Amino acid sequence: MEDSIQVAVKYLRQTKHRVVALTGAGISAESGIPTFRGKEGYWRGRSPMQLASLEGFCENPQLVWEWYLDRRKKLEGCQPNAGHFALAALEKLLPGFALVTQNVDGLHHNAGSKQLVELHGNIRRTHCLGCAYLEDPGRQEKAGNFRCPHCGDYLRPSVVWFGESLPERAWDQAFSWAQEADVFLVIGTSAVVYPAASLIPLAKETGAKIIEINVEETAASDVADVSLLGTSSVMIPRLVMALEE
Ligand code: OAD
User: Residue 178: which of 164, 165, 196 has the closest Cα?
Assistant: First the structure.
């Protein structure tokens, strides 16, 4: 493992332009937030894939809202962990560092990361399906009152659902960062959800070294130049410490 850390540090030290990190649910697992494809991701027997879609919402908005309100409530007690803080520290150490997350939990922001794109939105916000009405932070009370006070249409959580396009500005920013990267870190993601996962081959094709941090092999492991097998709360701080030595 020490050898792999040293290889990763060598890549980071050789950086001329930009280091980009793509994070997924795994980085927040140790903050108490279940991953999507793990067993705990299921809610009342339904997978996130069934609940997080416009079809699922139109079929049963109350049920989908209950799931999101439940997640919002759980999030109130969750803090960023050592992995989130280490990425915020990396931003200070490496000029040009940028962070792209698929997570909607806002923990990177809470840990102090500034050069940050939230590709899939933020679970704390609510917006209207029909007009520009936005609540930030969104309401917490029990599901039921989820109509827009302006136009009467449904209110929904401000997250990207399956089958939906990503917010254009966020995607454009992430895409150009990935193209500019000399090093691209892939952290705590199964790398199976597109288009987010396509940033990995894009960065590789445009010359970046790929460093993966995960507790297991993933769809990105084949293109990784170095894999750091372990939890993100241990491996990212170790990487930062080794870089500072
Ligand atoms: P997944 O649940 O698919 O994958 C989580 C990854 O984290 C897995 O590869 C785990 O091995 C890894 N992991 C778990 N604990 C870890 C730890 N402590 N340290 C490091 N790695 C760990 O989550 P995502 O890849 O984020 O999209 O899923 C991508 C998208 O699919 C989500 O943003 C969401 C989801 O459906 C939308 O909601 C649009």
Answer: 196
CA distance 243 to 245: 6
Task: Report the predicted TM-score, pTM, of the whole model to 2 decimal places.
Answer: 0.95
Q: Whose CA is nearest to atom 6 of ligand 1?
A: 189
- Integer Cα distance of 146 and 222 in angstroms: 44
> pLDDT of 151-188, one tens digit each?
999 999 999 999 999 999 999 999 999 999 999 999 99
45 phi-psi bin (left φ>0, alpha ψ -120 to 50, beta other)? left
Q: Which long-range contacts (CB under 8 A, 24 or more apart) does 57-60 make?
A: 57/154, 57/156, 57/161
Best of 28, 35, 162 for a ligand 1 pocket test (most atoms within 8 Å of beta carbon): 35
245 lines ligand 1 (CB under 6 A): no
Asked if 16 and 125 touch (Cβ cutoff 8 Å), the reply is: no
Compute, in angstroms, the gap from residue 112 CA to the centroid of ligand 1.
21
Q: Measure CA of the first residue to CA of the last residue in the chain; give whole Å.
A: 17
17 is catalytic: no
